[in-house]
Protein backbone atom coordinates (compact mmCIF):
# COMPACT_ATOMS: atom_id res chain seq x y z
CA UNK A 1 0.00 0.00 0.00
CA UNK A 2 1.38 3.40 -1.01
CA UNK A 3 1.81 6.01 1.70
CA UNK A 4 0.20 3.80 4.35
CA UNK A 5 -3.30 4.79 3.24
CA UNK A 6 -6.05 2.31 2.59
CA UNK A 7 -9.23 4.36 2.56
CA UNK A 8 -9.71 7.67 0.83
CA UNK A 9 -12.99 9.55 0.92
CA UNK A 10 -13.47 12.29 -1.67
CA UNK A 11 -16.20 14.83 -1.03
CA UNK A 12 -17.49 16.20 -4.34
CA UNK A 13 -18.08 14.29 -7.57
CA UNK A 14 -17.06 16.86 -10.11
CA UNK A 15 -13.90 18.15 -11.80
CA UNK A 16 -11.62 18.26 -8.76
CA UNK A 17 -12.95 15.23 -6.88
CA UNK A 18 -12.96 12.82 -9.83
CA UNK A 19 -9.52 14.02 -10.88
CA UNK A 20 -8.23 13.35 -7.37
CA UNK A 21 -9.49 9.78 -7.73
CA UNK A 22 -7.72 9.55 -11.10
CA UNK A 23 -4.48 10.82 -9.55
CA UNK A 24 -4.69 8.26 -6.75
CA UNK A 25 -5.05 5.36 -9.18
CA UNK A 26 -2.49 6.78 -11.58
CA UNK A 27 0.09 6.72 -8.80
CA UNK A 28 -0.75 3.12 -7.97
CA UNK A 29 -3.08 3.54 -5.01
CA UNK A 30 -4.87 0.21 -4.53
CA UNK A 31 -7.04 1.00 -1.53
CA UNK A 32 -10.69 2.06 -1.52
CA UNK A 33 -11.85 5.36 -3.00
CA UNK A 34 -15.32 6.56 -2.07
CA UNK A 35 -16.55 9.65 -3.89
CA UNK A 36 -19.57 11.43 -2.42
CA UNK A 37 -21.68 13.59 -4.70
CA UNK A 38 -24.49 15.72 -3.31
CA UNK A 39 -26.22 15.81 -6.68
CA UNK A 40 -28.10 12.91 -8.28
CA UNK A 41 -26.79 13.53 -11.79
CA UNK A 42 -24.00 11.44 -13.18
CA UNK A 43 -20.93 13.72 -13.05
CA UNK A 44 -21.35 16.33 -15.78
CA UNK A 45 -19.46 19.17 -17.40
CA UNK A 46 -20.45 22.46 -15.80
CA UNK A 47 -18.96 25.01 -18.26
CA UNK A 48 -21.12 23.84 -21.20
CA UNK A 49 -24.25 24.90 -19.30
CA UNK A 50 -23.74 28.62 -19.85
CA UNK A 51 -22.74 28.00 -23.47
CA UNK A 52 -23.98 25.26 -25.84
CA UNK A 53 -26.61 23.88 -23.46
CA UNK A 54 -28.24 27.24 -22.94
CA UNK A 55 -28.29 27.94 -26.67
CA UNK A 56 -29.55 24.47 -27.68
CA UNK A 57 -32.99 24.41 -29.29
CA UNK A 58 -33.77 20.87 -28.19
CA UNK A 59 -33.75 19.52 -24.66
CA UNK A 60 -30.07 19.81 -23.79
CA UNK A 61 -28.09 16.72 -22.85
CA UNK A 62 -25.54 17.15 -20.08
CA UNK A 63 -22.02 16.39 -21.17
CA UNK A 64 -20.74 13.42 -19.19
CA UNK A 65 -17.59 13.98 -17.17
CA UNK A 66 -16.75 10.29 -16.66
CA UNK A 67 -18.51 7.30 -18.13
CA UNK A 68 -19.84 4.74 -15.64
CA UNK A 69 -17.38 2.27 -17.25
CA UNK A 70 -14.44 4.49 -16.48
CA UNK A 71 -15.60 5.03 -12.92
CA UNK A 72 -15.92 1.30 -12.49
CA UNK A 73 -12.56 0.61 -14.14
CA UNK A 74 -11.01 3.09 -11.70
CA UNK A 75 -12.64 1.15 -8.87
CA UNK A 76 -14.33 4.26 -7.56
CA UNK A 77 -17.29 3.80 -5.24
CA UNK A 78 -19.34 6.74 -6.49
CA UNK A 79 -22.24 7.55 -4.20
CA UNK A 80 -24.52 10.04 -5.89
CA UNK A 81 -27.08 11.87 -3.81
CA UNK A 82 -24.91 11.30 -0.74
CA UNK A 83 -23.67 14.59 0.67
CA UNK A 84 -21.07 14.88 3.39
CA UNK A 85 -22.79 16.34 6.44
CA UNK A 86 -19.87 16.38 8.85
CA UNK A 87 -16.21 15.59 9.30
CA UNK A 88 -14.97 13.91 12.48
CA UNK A 89 -11.25 14.53 12.49
CA UNK A 90 -10.56 12.68 15.78
CA UNK A 91 -12.17 9.38 14.91
CA UNK A 92 -11.64 9.93 11.19
CA UNK A 93 -15.12 9.61 9.78
CA UNK A 94 -17.02 11.46 7.11
CA UNK A 95 -20.67 11.47 8.08
CA UNK A 96 -23.14 11.57 5.21
CA UNK A 97 -26.69 12.81 4.90
CA UNK A 98 -27.70 9.13 4.88
CA UNK A 99 -26.22 8.78 8.35
CA UNK A 100 -23.28 6.70 7.16
CA UNK A 101 -19.95 7.14 8.95
CA UNK A 102 -17.25 6.49 6.38
CA UNK A 103 -13.80 5.83 7.84
CA UNK A 104 -10.84 7.48 6.13
CA UNK A 105 -7.08 7.57 6.14
CA UNK A 106 -7.23 10.58 3.86
CA UNK A 107 -10.02 12.93 2.79
CA UNK A 108 -10.06 15.13 -0.27
CA UNK A 109 -12.51 17.99 0.08
CA UNK A 110 -13.59 18.94 -3.44
CA UNK A 111 -17.11 20.19 -2.87
CA UNK A 112 -16.74 23.32 -4.99
CA UNK A 113 -18.65 26.51 -4.60
CA UNK A 114 -22.19 27.75 -4.92
CA UNK A 115 -23.60 30.99 -6.26
CA UNK A 116 -23.51 33.97 -3.93
CA UNK A 117 -27.14 34.62 -3.07
CA UNK A 118 -29.21 37.70 -3.64
CA UNK A 119 -32.71 37.73 -2.18
CA UNK A 120 -35.81 39.73 -2.85
CA UNK A 121 -37.13 41.89 -0.02
CA UNK A 122 -39.61 39.06 0.65
CA UNK A 123 -36.68 36.71 1.20
CA UNK A 124 -36.86 34.70 -2.05
CA UNK A 125 -33.47 33.67 -3.39
CA UNK A 126 -33.10 34.96 -6.95
CA UNK A 127 -32.15 32.37 -9.57
CA UNK A 128 -28.51 31.76 -10.51
CA UNK A 129 -26.81 29.22 -12.77
CA UNK A 130 -24.77 26.41 -11.25
CA UNK A 131 -26.67 23.15 -11.67
CA UNK A 132 -28.77 21.43 -14.35
CA UNK A 133 -31.87 22.37 -12.34
CA UNK A 134 -30.86 26.04 -12.60
CA UNK A 135 -30.29 25.58 -16.33
CA UNK A 136 -33.79 24.21 -16.79
CA UNK A 137 -35.34 27.15 -14.93
CA UNK A 138 -33.31 29.59 -17.00
CA UNK A 139 -34.19 27.95 -20.32
CA UNK A 140 -37.87 27.89 -19.45
CA UNK A 141 -37.82 31.51 -18.38
CA UNK A 142 -36.02 32.51 -21.59
CA UNK A 143 -38.67 30.78 -23.69
CA UNK A 144 -41.53 32.11 -21.61
CA UNK A 145 -40.61 35.75 -21.16
CA UNK A 146 -38.27 36.47 -24.09
CA UNK A 147 -36.68 39.10 -21.94
CA UNK A 148 -34.23 38.83 -19.08
CA UNK A 149 -32.17 40.94 -16.73
CA UNK A 150 -28.81 39.70 -15.51
CA UNK A 151 -27.38 41.07 -12.29
CA UNK A 152 -23.61 40.86 -12.51
CA UNK A 153 -21.36 40.98 -15.54
CA UNK A 154 -18.83 38.32 -14.62
CA UNK A 155 -17.95 35.45 -16.91
CA UNK A 156 -21.13 33.51 -16.29
CA UNK A 157 -23.33 36.59 -16.68
CA UNK A 158 -21.70 37.51 -19.97
CA UNK A 159 -21.80 33.97 -21.34
CA UNK A 160 -25.47 33.74 -20.41
CA UNK A 161 -26.09 37.10 -22.10
CA UNK A 162 -24.42 35.86 -25.30
CA UNK A 163 -26.33 32.57 -25.26
CA UNK A 164 -29.68 34.24 -24.59
CA UNK A 165 -29.15 36.75 -27.37
CA UNK A 166 -28.54 33.80 -29.71
CA UNK A 167 -31.97 32.54 -28.65
CA UNK A 168 -33.56 35.89 -29.47
CA UNK A 169 -33.98 36.98 -25.85
CA UNK A 170 -33.75 40.67 -24.98
CA UNK A 171 -31.02 41.06 -22.36
CA UNK A 172 -30.18 43.81 -19.91
CA UNK A 173 -27.07 43.54 -17.73
CA UNK A 174 -26.84 45.45 -14.45
CA UNK A 175 -23.52 45.88 -12.68
CA UNK A 176 -21.92 48.15 -10.13
CA UNK A 177 -18.71 48.05 -12.16
CA UNK A 178 -18.26 50.64 -14.89
CA UNK A 179 -17.18 47.91 -17.33
CA UNK A 180 -17.76 44.15 -17.27
CA UNK A 181 -14.86 42.17 -15.80
CA UNK A 182 -12.70 45.26 -15.55
CA UNK A 183 -10.68 44.04 -12.54
CA UNK A 184 -9.81 40.84 -14.40
CA UNK A 185 -9.15 42.29 -17.84
CA UNK A 186 -8.30 45.97 -17.43
CA UNK A 187 -10.31 48.76 -19.03
CA UNK A 188 -9.41 48.31 -22.69
CA UNK A 189 -10.26 44.62 -22.95
CA UNK A 190 -13.31 45.13 -20.77
CA UNK A 191 -14.49 47.80 -23.21
CA UNK A 192 -13.88 45.40 -26.09
CA UNK A 193 -15.98 42.75 -24.39
CA UNK A 194 -18.78 45.17 -23.60
CA UNK A 195 -18.77 46.36 -27.23
CA UNK A 196 -19.09 42.76 -28.44
CA UNK A 197 -22.28 42.54 -26.44
CA UNK A 198 -23.75 45.93 -27.19
CA UNK A 199 -23.20 45.31 -30.91
CA UNK A 200 -25.62 42.40 -30.55
CA UNK A 201 -28.20 44.37 -28.67
CA UNK A 202 -27.34 43.69 -25.02
CA UNK A 203 -28.14 46.72 -22.86
CA UNK A 204 -25.80 47.57 -19.99
CA UNK A 205 -26.66 49.63 -16.95
CA UNK A 206 -23.20 49.96 -15.47
CA UNK A 207 -21.63 51.71 -12.49
CA UNK A 208 -24.83 51.51 -10.53
CA UNK A 209 -25.54 48.92 -7.86
CA UNK A 210 -28.70 47.02 -7.07
CA UNK A 211 -30.26 48.33 -3.84
CA UNK A 212 -33.17 45.91 -3.61
CA UNK A 213 -35.36 43.57 -5.61
CA UNK A 214 -39.07 42.96 -5.18
CA UNK A 215 -41.57 40.79 -7.02
CA UNK A 216 -41.53 37.30 -8.45
CA UNK A 217 -41.09 35.56 -11.80
CA UNK A 218 -43.18 37.47 -14.34
CA UNK A 219 -42.77 40.83 -12.62
CA UNK A 220 -39.67 41.97 -10.79
CA UNK A 221 -38.74 45.49 -9.76
CA UNK A 222 -35.05 46.13 -9.30
CA UNK A 223 -34.33 49.33 -7.39
CA UNK A 224 -30.92 50.79 -8.20
CA UNK A 225 -28.73 52.96 -6.01
CA UNK A 226 -29.27 55.96 -8.31
CA UNK A 227 -32.95 55.84 -7.31
CA UNK A 228 -34.22 54.42 -10.59
CA UNK A 229 -36.35 51.30 -10.87
CA UNK A 230 -35.73 48.66 -13.49
CA UNK A 231 -38.61 46.28 -14.33
CA UNK A 232 -38.00 42.81 -15.65
CA UNK A 233 -40.03 39.62 -15.99
CA UNK A 234 -37.07 37.49 -14.96
CA UNK A 235 -33.85 38.20 -13.11
CA UNK A 236 -30.78 35.98 -13.00
CA UNK A 237 -27.92 36.72 -10.64
CA UNK A 238 -24.26 36.10 -11.42
CA UNK A 239 -22.55 37.88 -8.57
CA UNK A 240 -19.83 35.41 -7.73
CA UNK A 241 -19.56 32.14 -5.86
CA UNK A 242 -18.79 31.08 -2.32
CA UNK A 243 -17.03 27.93 -1.16
CA UNK A 244 -19.47 25.20 -0.07
CA UNK A 245 -18.10 24.76 3.43
CA UNK A 246 -21.12 24.78 5.78
CA UNK A 247 -20.87 21.04 6.43
CA UNK A 248 -17.37 21.54 7.91
CA UNK A 249 -18.55 23.80 10.74
CA UNK A 250 -16.99 22.69 14.00
CA UNK A 251 -14.71 20.16 12.31
CA UNK A 252 -11.50 22.02 13.09
CA UNK A 253 -10.59 22.40 9.41
CA UNK A 254 -9.47 25.98 8.88
CA UNK A 255 -11.77 27.96 6.62
CA UNK A 256 -10.85 31.51 5.71
CA UNK A 257 -12.32 32.54 2.38
CA UNK A 258 -12.17 28.86 1.38
CA UNK A 259 -10.52 25.81 2.88
CA UNK A 260 -7.03 26.91 3.73
CA UNK A 261 -4.29 24.62 2.42
CA UNK A 262 -0.59 24.75 1.85
CA UNK A 263 0.88 24.56 -1.65
CA UNK A 264 0.67 20.77 -1.57
CA UNK A 265 -3.06 20.83 -0.82
CA UNK A 266 -2.91 19.89 2.89
CA UNK A 267 -5.27 21.53 5.34
CA UNK A 268 -4.37 22.14 8.98
CA UNK A 269 -5.82 18.69 9.83
CA UNK A 270 -3.48 15.78 9.06
CA UNK A 271 -4.89 13.58 6.30
CA UNK A 272 -7.37 16.20 5.11
CA UNK A 273 -6.71 17.82 1.74
CA UNK A 274 -8.69 20.22 -0.43
CA UNK A 275 -8.82 20.90 -4.17
CA UNK A 276 -10.67 22.93 -6.78
CA UNK A 277 -13.05 25.84 -6.29
CA UNK A 278 -13.35 25.25 -2.55
CA UNK A 279 -9.62 25.46 -1.74
CA UNK A 280 -7.79 28.63 -0.77
CA UNK A 281 -4.21 27.53 -1.27
CA UNK A 282 -0.81 29.08 -1.21
CA UNK A 283 0.28 29.41 -4.84
CA UNK A 284 4.08 29.43 -5.12
CA UNK A 285 4.04 31.26 -8.46
CA UNK A 286 1.64 33.96 -7.36
CA UNK A 287 3.25 34.23 -3.93
CA UNK A 288 -0.10 34.48 -2.21
CA UNK A 289 -3.09 32.52 -1.09
CA UNK A 290 -5.68 32.23 -3.85
CA UNK A 291 -8.92 30.48 -4.62
CA UNK A 292 -9.08 29.64 -8.31
CA UNK A 293 -12.59 29.11 -9.66
CA UNK A 294 -11.72 27.65 -13.03
CA UNK A 295 -12.31 24.28 -14.58
CA UNK A 296 -8.79 23.37 -15.70
CA UNK A 297 -7.40 24.29 -12.32
CA UNK A 298 -9.90 21.99 -10.57
CA UNK A 299 -8.89 19.11 -12.83
CA UNK A 300 -5.15 19.66 -12.51
CA UNK A 301 -5.04 20.43 -8.82
CA UNK A 302 -7.36 17.53 -8.02
CA UNK A 303 -5.13 15.10 -9.88
CA UNK A 304 -2.03 16.58 -8.29
CA UNK A 305 -3.41 16.05 -4.80
CA UNK A 306 -4.40 12.48 -5.65
CA UNK A 307 -0.82 11.85 -6.76
CA UNK A 308 0.57 13.45 -3.61
CA UNK A 309 -1.60 11.32 -1.33
CA UNK A 310 -0.81 8.08 -3.14
CA UNK A 311 2.92 8.77 -3.22
CA UNK A 312 3.09 10.07 0.32
CA UNK A 313 4.50 13.34 -1.05
CA UNK A 314 3.87 17.00 -0.43
CA UNK A 315 4.90 18.36 -3.81
CA UNK A 316 3.58 21.90 -4.25
CA UNK A 317 0.97 22.51 -6.91
CA UNK A 318 2.06 25.37 -9.11
CA UNK A 319 -0.04 25.12 -12.25
CA UNK A 320 -0.46 28.44 -14.02
CA UNK A 321 -4.06 29.57 -13.53
CA UNK A 322 -5.98 29.30 -16.81
CA UNK A 323 -9.46 30.13 -17.96
CA UNK A 324 -11.36 30.34 -21.19
CA UNK A 325 -14.66 31.91 -21.98
CA UNK A 326 -16.81 31.57 -25.11
CA UNK A 327 -19.02 34.45 -26.16
CA UNK A 328 -20.70 34.82 -29.58
CA UNK A 329 -18.56 32.04 -30.97
CA UNK A 330 -15.39 33.82 -29.89
CA UNK A 331 -13.05 32.11 -27.43
CA UNK A 332 -10.94 34.18 -25.08
CA UNK A 333 -8.21 32.47 -23.07
CA UNK A 334 -5.96 33.64 -20.28
CA UNK A 335 -2.94 32.22 -18.46
CA UNK A 336 -1.85 33.78 -15.20
CA UNK A 337 -3.61 36.53 -13.31
CA UNK A 338 -3.75 40.22 -14.05
CA UNK A 339 -3.15 42.32 -10.94
CA UNK A 340 -4.43 45.79 -10.10
CA UNK A 341 -2.05 48.39 -11.53
CA UNK A 342 -0.67 46.11 -14.24
CA UNK A 343 0.25 47.63 -17.55
CA UNK A 344 -1.13 45.89 -20.61
CA UNK A 345 0.76 45.52 -23.84
CA UNK A 346 -0.63 44.26 -27.13
CA UNK A 347 2.15 42.11 -28.58
CA UNK A 348 0.22 40.43 -31.40
CA UNK A 349 -2.76 41.51 -33.45
CA UNK A 350 -5.13 44.22 -32.33
CA UNK A 351 -8.67 44.64 -31.12
CA UNK A 352 -9.71 45.52 -34.68
CA UNK A 353 -8.28 42.44 -36.37
CA UNK A 354 -10.28 39.91 -34.36
CA UNK A 355 -7.12 38.22 -33.03
CA UNK A 356 -4.81 39.58 -30.42
CA UNK A 357 -2.52 38.74 -27.55
CA UNK A 358 -2.05 41.03 -24.57
CA UNK A 359 0.53 40.77 -21.80
CA UNK A 360 0.00 42.04 -18.27
CA UNK A 361 2.77 42.94 -15.86
CA UNK A 362 4.17 45.46 -13.46
CA UNK A 363 7.56 46.51 -12.08
CA UNK A 364 9.49 44.00 -14.16
CA UNK A 365 7.11 41.16 -13.28
CA UNK A 366 5.14 39.26 -15.88
CA UNK A 367 1.70 38.31 -14.59
CA UNK A 368 -0.61 37.13 -17.36
CA UNK A 369 -1.26 36.66 -21.07
CA UNK A 370 -4.75 37.06 -22.53
CA UNK A 371 -5.67 36.24 -26.09
CA UNK A 372 -8.38 35.96 -28.67
CA UNK A 373 -6.95 33.34 -31.04
CA UNK A 374 -3.11 33.19 -31.09
CA UNK A 375 -3.24 29.87 -29.27
CA UNK A 376 0.25 28.73 -30.10
CA UNK A 377 1.87 31.94 -28.89
CA UNK A 378 -0.27 31.84 -25.79
CA UNK A 379 1.21 28.45 -24.87
CA UNK A 380 4.71 29.91 -25.07
CA UNK A 381 3.72 32.53 -22.52
CA UNK A 382 2.22 29.84 -20.31
CA UNK A 383 5.60 28.14 -20.20
CA UNK A 384 7.25 31.42 -19.33
CA UNK A 385 4.74 32.08 -16.56
CA UNK A 386 5.26 28.53 -15.26
CA UNK A 387 8.94 29.16 -14.74
CA UNK A 388 8.41 32.60 -13.22
CA UNK A 389 9.68 34.53 -16.26
CA UNK A 390 10.16 38.29 -16.04
CA UNK A 391 8.57 41.10 -18.03
CA UNK A 392 11.77 41.49 -20.06
CA UNK A 393 11.71 37.80 -20.92
CA UNK A 394 8.10 38.19 -21.99
CA UNK A 395 9.10 41.09 -24.21
CA UNK A 396 11.96 39.07 -25.69
CA UNK A 397 9.49 36.28 -26.47
CA UNK A 398 7.11 38.81 -27.96
CA UNK A 399 9.85 39.95 -30.34
CA UNK A 400 10.60 36.36 -31.33
CA UNK A 401 6.97 35.59 -32.09
CA UNK A 402 6.34 38.93 -33.72
CA UNK A 403 9.44 40.52 -35.24
CA UNK A 404 7.30 43.44 -36.40
CA UNK A 405 6.93 44.45 -32.79
CA UNK A 406 10.52 45.69 -32.61
CA UNK A 407 9.85 49.10 -34.05
CA UNK A 408 6.94 49.65 -31.68
CA UNK A 409 9.00 48.66 -28.67
CA UNK A 410 11.88 50.89 -29.61
CA UNK A 411 9.65 53.97 -29.63
CA UNK A 412 10.38 56.21 -26.71
CA UNK A 413 6.72 56.80 -26.16
CA UNK A 414 5.78 53.14 -26.54
CA UNK A 415 4.15 53.08 -23.15
CA UNK A 416 1.73 55.80 -24.11
CA UNK A 417 1.11 54.20 -27.47
CA UNK A 418 0.69 50.62 -26.48
CA UNK A 419 -0.23 50.37 -22.84
CA UNK A 420 -3.17 51.23 -20.72
CA UNK A 421 -2.81 51.60 -17.02
CA UNK A 422 -5.51 49.97 -14.99
CA UNK A 423 -7.04 51.48 -11.95
C1 LIG B 1 -22.30 27.85 -15.62
C2 LIG B 1 -20.82 27.75 -15.39
C3 LIG B 1 -19.94 27.92 -16.44
C4 LIG B 1 -18.57 27.84 -16.23
N1 LIG B 1 -17.73 28.04 -17.29
C5 LIG B 1 -16.40 27.96 -17.09
C6 LIG B 1 -15.50 28.18 -18.18
O1 LIG B 1 -15.91 28.45 -19.30
N2 LIG B 1 -14.18 28.09 -17.93
C7 LIG B 1 -13.69 27.79 -16.70
O2 LIG B 1 -12.46 27.73 -16.53
N3 LIG B 1 -14.52 27.58 -15.65
C8 LIG B 1 -15.85 27.66 -15.82
N4 LIG B 1 -16.70 27.47 -14.76
C9 LIG B 1 -16.13 27.17 -13.44
C10 LIG B 1 -15.91 25.67 -13.29
O3 LIG B 1 -17.07 24.98 -13.64
C11 LIG B 1 -15.51 25.38 -11.84
O4 LIG B 1 -14.31 26.04 -11.57
C12 LIG B 1 -15.35 23.88 -11.62
O5 LIG B 1 -16.57 23.21 -11.84
C13 LIG B 1 -14.87 23.61 -10.21
O6 LIG B 1 -14.80 22.23 -10.01
P1 LIG B 1 -14.88 21.63 -8.54
O7 LIG B 1 -14.84 20.14 -8.73
O8 LIG B 1 -13.89 22.28 -7.68
O9 LIG B 1 -16.29 22.09 -8.00
P2 LIG B 1 -17.76 21.84 -8.55
O10 LIG B 1 -17.78 21.68 -10.03
O11 LIG B 1 -18.61 22.90 -7.95
O12 LIG B 1 -18.15 20.44 -7.95
C14 LIG B 1 -18.32 20.24 -6.57
C15 LIG B 1 -19.31 19.13 -6.41
O13 LIG B 1 -19.41 18.83 -5.03
C16 LIG B 1 -20.75 18.63 -4.69
N5 LIG B 1 -20.91 18.91 -3.26
C17 LIG B 1 -21.05 20.11 -2.64
N6 LIG B 1 -21.15 19.95 -1.32
C18 LIG B 1 -21.06 18.61 -1.09
C19 LIG B 1 -21.11 17.81 0.06
N7 LIG B 1 -21.25 18.34 1.29
N8 LIG B 1 -21.01 16.47 -0.08
C20 LIG B 1 -20.86 15.90 -1.31
N9 LIG B 1 -20.81 16.63 -2.45
C21 LIG B 1 -20.92 17.95 -2.33
C22 LIG B 1 -21.52 19.58 -5.58
O14 LIG B 1 -22.84 19.13 -5.76
C23 LIG B 1 -20.70 19.52 -6.87
O15 LIG B 1 -21.19 18.59 -7.76
C24 LIG B 1 -18.08 27.57 -14.94
C25 LIG B 1 -18.96 27.40 -13.87
C26 LIG B 1 -20.33 27.49 -14.09
C27 LIG B 1 -21.27 27.33 -12.93
Low-confidence stretches: 407-423
Main sheet specs: 5 strands, parallel
Count of helical regions: 12
Tell me the number of strands: 25
Oligomer: single chain
The small molecules bound here are:
flavin-adenine dinucleotide
Fraction of residues in helix: 25-40%
State which percent range the strand residues make up.
Answer: 25-35%
Distance between the termini: 53 Å
The radius of gyration is 23 Å
Shape: globular
Average pLDDT for all residues: 93
Give, in spatial order, the strands making up the sheet with the most strands: 3-2-1-7-18
Computed structural class: alpha/beta
Describe this structure in words.
This protein is of the alpha/beta class and 423 residues long. The protein is 27% helix and 29% strand. The chain has helices at residues 15-26, 52-55, 68-73, 132-145, 155-166, 182-185, 187-198, 295-311, 375-386, 391-401, 405-410, 414-418; strands spanning 7-11, 32-37, 76-80, 84-88, 93-96, 101-103, 106-109, 113-115, 147-151, 170-174, 203-205, 210-216, 219-224, 229-232, 235-237, 241-243, 259-261, 272-274, 279-283, 288-290, 322-327, 330-336, 343-350, 355-362, 365-372. The protein contains 12 helices and 25 strands. A hairpin with a 4-residue loop joins strand 4 and strand 5 (93-96). It is globular, with a radius of gyration of 23 Å. A 5-stranded parallel sheet has the order 3-2-1-7-18. The protein has a 5-stranded antiparallel sheet with strand order 21-22-25-24-23. Strands 11-10-9-15 form a 4-stranded parallel sheet. The structure holds flavin-adenine dinucleotide (FAD). Flavin-adenine dinucleotide is lined by residues 11-17, 36-39, 46-47, 49-50, 83-84, 110-113, 129-130, 156, 244, 247, 276-278, 293-296, 298, 323-325.
Amino acid sequence: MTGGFERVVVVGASAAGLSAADGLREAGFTGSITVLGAELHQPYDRPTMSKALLVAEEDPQLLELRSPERIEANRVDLRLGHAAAGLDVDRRYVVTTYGEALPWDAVVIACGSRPREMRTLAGEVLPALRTPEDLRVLREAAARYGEMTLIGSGFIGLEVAAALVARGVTVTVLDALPLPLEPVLGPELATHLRDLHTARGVRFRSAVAVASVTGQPGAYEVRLTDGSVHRAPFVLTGIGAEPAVDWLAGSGVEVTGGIVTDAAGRTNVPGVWAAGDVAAFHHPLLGQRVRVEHWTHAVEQGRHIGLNIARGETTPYQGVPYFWTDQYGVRFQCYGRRRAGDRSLFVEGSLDTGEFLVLFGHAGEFHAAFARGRVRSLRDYRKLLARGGTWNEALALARTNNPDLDTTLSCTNRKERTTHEAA
